[in-house]
Amino acid sequence: MKRLLGVAFALTAFFCCSCGAAFGQKKLATKNITLRSAGGSEISLKAELARTASEQQRGFMERTSIPDGTGMLFVFTSDQQLHFWMKNTPHPLSIAYIDRNGVIRDIFDMKPFSLATVSSTVSVRYALEVPQGWFNRVGIQTGDTLLLDF
Length: 150
What we know:
single chain, alpha+beta, two-stranded antiparallel sheet, 3 helices
């Protein structure tokens, strides 16, 4: 009987792990990206790339730890006004909305678990989420640029 329960447990664990991958919990591709301040200094960041609709919908949901110097870059195929929220996201984030030329147009802080929409003020191509306060700590602000080499 113990052996049968062990086999049932193993199969259940395998099924749950397999389903997790099927529901978008796979690891995203990462890329080192560079931001340039108006003063010319460059700051590197290791970013996960969210390119597909399912990757973009999942974002940083359920992540309890996002180390400084890392983030998630949402890459869209066309310019549009973007709308983000923090549903199921326990870690406080800052978001930068970036136009197709790489210029940061907006930076906002977002509250964990908030369902309030945080929208770009203009049409943009990219959104970059980082741990809250990171942009301030490294001296990045609106008008600075993301170097587009991807």
